[in-house]
Hints:
Blueprint: E1 6-9, H1 15-26, H2 28-44, E2 57-62, E3 65-75, E4 84-92, H3 101-115, E5 121-123, H4 130-138
Parallel strand pairs: 4-5
Antiparallel strand pairs: 1-2, 2-3, 3-4
Helix pairs in contact: 1-2
Amino acid sequence: MYDEVIVRPLRHEDADAVRSLDGRIVGPDRSKSWDRYVDRFLRLTDLDALPESPWGCYVAEIRGRVVGFLLSELRGGEYGLPRGAWIMAVGVDPKLRRRGVGRKLVDELMSQCRQRRVPDIYAAILPGDNEATGFVKSCGLDPSRGVAIYSKTT
Length: 154
């Protein structure tokens, strides 16, 4: 299975497949906000006009069908955040989980980070999301010592 998966940069024509996949994974509520995120991303980045695909955004496909995606952004400096690749979203077709698709996406991001000398990769995970925590740990990410998030319910 792992050998069948092709990871490639996100292209403009992938947006609908990524929206659809995300909707199947998390349901319609997040898909509404996801649509706004993708639409904002697509408005700010004319993928067709770029000489190369946007940094850190990939899809995984098997036989031409999108089965996974990873969106990340290069951040650092603003609000004192450490410089690095920030994983914004990862999704894999629920029928294909635990077969290396998500790991292959993260491996591609890690490779690009090494090539561009990006020092770290970050992923923010909600407390109690054991599936996401297990996934990022399996990819080699550890709890950050450099970023702490505090909140208060009003």
